[in-house]
Design goal:
By secondary structure, the protein is of the alpha/beta class. It has a domain at about 5-225 and about 280-310 and about 345-360: Rossmann fold (3-Layer(aba) Sandwich), CATH 3.40.50. It has 13 helices and 15 strands. The protein is globular and about 55 Å long.
Length: about 375
């Protein structure tokens, strides 16, 4: 029986994946400090180590104690808007702590990792044919200036190349004396693509994975998932984050009277109804993708990056309408100005994952809404009591 260590395994996508791993016969150790995770979402028999990745020595003790065969890493901050005003926080958790994890893996001889990445690495399309996004875009597009939208570094307002270089200065300082982690000109060009610090941090993680693969033989799959919504159809887990960021969770919070008004960020995008277009994906489909990625690596598959999404484009207003339909209630929303870091359109081509992993999304938007509504209106509070 393979042992899998799952960082952030008591969180939203992490707990769905832990459930899938247990059902598929894996032994699971969850490493989660429970800052935004919940122990009650974990299946019986799963070992929980309440540790944060910033505590490298304690993380190493966990690896030496359990000797995992592979890691699935969910431990990252993921709020696009927040990343634009708290970039240092995103560097520490999404980059520095990730390097701690990879160092411990190398030091203890654990050579397989499945890493959660994101559609935020893609930024905005440069031409119509860029959509749906293919994984090759981030290797082929080589911008001369960073696309980062306006944000803050302390009290200083920054955007573009100055914002990116400020972030990369932290990386250079952290990795001083480690020639295997030096960024090339091509790496920096790639990091100019995302619109948000969140996207930069996750694309930097992918680059770091490439370097650990080359230097230390750590084999990886990075899964770029698009906008996640929905909940476990068996009602064992769902979105419980203390501060919700998921659109569908926020919609149902408003419908259930827990949120006075839903903010819709922008109705002036070049889309059919003016709201942003996204590709939505159910967490159970993602969980299945992580398990298939593990099997791919264990069978000798080379390190790869895969999109995970349905390939179906939905506007924010269409998500609101699908949610209203299952709830039988209207959403009280207000149009706000665009949120810094958000692209206008983000839809995936997941054919590579289908071909190489045998993975395909099963749930569609209506089913995402049904499972999310059941979780938010009936099961969430019962489980968390």
């Amino acid at each position: 029986m393979k042992k899998i260590l799952v960082t952030g395994g008591a969180g939203y996508i992490g707990s769905h994946t832990v459930k899938e791993l247990v059902e598929k016969g894996f032994q699971v150790i969850v490493l989660d400090d429970l800052r935004s995770g919940f122990e009650k979402l974990l299946p019986e028999g799963v070992v929980l180590e309440k540790i944060g990745l910033e505590n490298k020595s304690a993380v190493k003790e966990v690896f030496l104690k359990h000797k995992p065969d592979a890691v699935i890493d969910f431990a990252a901050y993921l709020a696009v808007g927040e990343s634009m005003v708290e970039p240092e926080k995103y560097f520490e958790n999404n980059v520095e702590n990730f390097i701690h994890l990879l160092d411990v893996m190398h030091e203890t001889g654990c050579n397989y990792i499945v890493k959660s990445s994101t559609a935020a690495v893609y930024g905005n399309p440069t031409k119509d044919s860029d959509i749906p996004w293919k994984e090759t875009f981030t290797n082929e597009y080589k911008p001369a200036e960073a696309a980062l939208l306006e944000g803050k570094w302390g009290n200083e307002e920054l955007s573009g190349e100055k914002f990116l270089q400020k972030f990369l200065d932290l990386y250079r300082a952290l990795c001083a004396g480690r020639p295997e982690l030096v960024l090339s000109g091509g790496d920096i060009s790639k990091l100019r693509i995302p619109l948000s610090i969140y996207g930069v941090s996750k694309l930097l993680d992918e680059i770091i994975l490439e370097k650990y693969n080359k230097a230390f033989g750590i084999n990886y799959v990075a899964l770029r998932y698009f906008n996640v919504c929905g909940a476990d159809p068996e009602h064992k887990t769902g979105d419980c984050k203390p501060k919700a960021t998921n659109l569908m969770t926020l919609i149902f919070a408003q419908i259930n009277g827990k949120l006075p008004q839903l903010a819709v960020f922008g109705d002036d995008y070049p889309t059919k109804d003016g709201t942003g277009v996204r590709d939505y994906i159910h967490p159970s489909d993602l969980a299945n993708g992580h398990v298939l990625s593990l099997k791919y690596l264990f069978s000798g598959g080379r390190s790869e990056v895969f999109n995970h999404a349905t390939g179906e484009a939905s506007t924010v207003m269409e998500v609101i309408q699908a949610s209203e339909k299952v709830a039988g209630k209207k959403v009280n929303y207000k149009i706000e100005s665009r949120r810094s870091g958000d692209p206008s359109v983000s839809v995936a081509d997941s054919s590579k994952a289908k071909e190489m992993l045998g993975w395909e999304a099963k749930y569609r938007l209506s089913e995402m809404a049904e499972t999310a509504w059941e979780w938010e209106s009936e099961y969430k509070e019962k489980i968390l009591k």
